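Record 1 of the preview.
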Amino acid sequence: MKLHIKAIEAADVPKMDVVGKSDPFLEFRMSTSSQVWKTKHKNNTYTPVWNQQFELPVTSNGDDVLHVSLYDFDNISKNDIISTRDFPISSFIEDQITDEWYDFQAVKGVKRGGRVRLAFHLAQPGVPAFVDRS
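->
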């Protein structure tokens, strides 16, 4: 199986640095893999638009969990984690496309986690991503 992810946009991203706005990006990680997928960071914004697509392999029997983290990119020091959200792969229905806004859980010390719009499509290998076949 493949989990197709479209990182579309975010809103209400909190200010993390003393100067300027946030430079947000998303990081995707499967619980059963060490591989990491990242969007490009968007400079100086609280409302980034990424429109980036990823294809993650689903290897287990549905016990996988997709960990999504929202970060503030930082040139000088390490990137600041803003918020996270977990998506059990078993919650996705094969061949069903979902496109929704999700509230993210702020990490300790951050007042709000922001909202992220993601689209998901769980499909067999070779099935075109985000094509409604119903």
